[in-house]
Amino acid sequence: IFILLLLTACANKKNEIAAIKFSGYKIITLNVFDYKIEVKDEKYNLPNDLGFDSSFLLNKLTIWGNKKFKVNGEKKSLLLAIEGFSLEKKNIKKNKGLKKIFFSEEEIEYNLKLKISLKFFEENKVLDTLNLNGNIVFLIKDNYSIIQKKEFLSSAYVELIKKVDEALDHELNKKTFSKFRTTQ
């Protein structure tokens, strides 16, 4: 009976990852004719040591970049360059004493960092550059399943993008960059 209960308990595990989306951003209409996202693989440090391919974060980032801006202009161009995107282990917390006997898991602290720049051009001449940096720290226990780890990483990514998105909206509303926005 014990084995039967164990097998049925394991069979009822959820194998799907909930789609965590960030769609609460405001689309910004810019007075530019051309818009590009620059993605260079050497600027990224997204290790797969959590047990899955973490390149899905880079895909989510480019989707956000493509949906964030709407172009409506005749002259200027914009380049969104992802200057850095990394996931780093910061600290490993090991249980000591009696906790070590009862709870063998460790907590690993990760730091997800994003560095982007927006470069506005007119006829191959740089007009203005906006640089944004963001990071978020989160904990993952080593006894989490791959699905749980991916859910934590996705949640951390969504929070990071929300913060970067808010900072981007704030900076583009300033007088320096307002000349690149349209009122649509």
What would you say about this model in short?
With 184 residues, the chain is an alpha/beta fold. It has five helices and seven strands. 32% of the residues lie in helices and 34% in strands.
Protein model, in words:
The protein has helices at residues 2-11, 56-68, 98-102, 146-172, 175-178; strands at 28-30, 34-38, 44-45, 69-71, 77-93, 107-122, 125-141. It has 184 residues and is of the alpha/beta class. The chain is elongated, with a radius of gyration of 21 Å. Residues 11-18 have low confidence and may be disordered.
| Helix fraction bin | 25-40%
Structural class: alpha/beta
Mean pLDDT: 78
Strand portion = 25-35%
Rg (CA only)? 21 Å
How does the overall form come out from the CA principal axes?
elongated
Helix-strand pattern? HEEEHEEHEEHH
Question: How far do the termini sit from each other?
Answer: 67 Å
User: If helices are DSSP runs of H or I spanning 4 or more residues, what is the number of helices?
Assistant: 5
Contiguous uncertain segments of 5+ residues: 11-18
* Number of E-state strands: 7
Main sheet characteristics: 5 strands, mixed
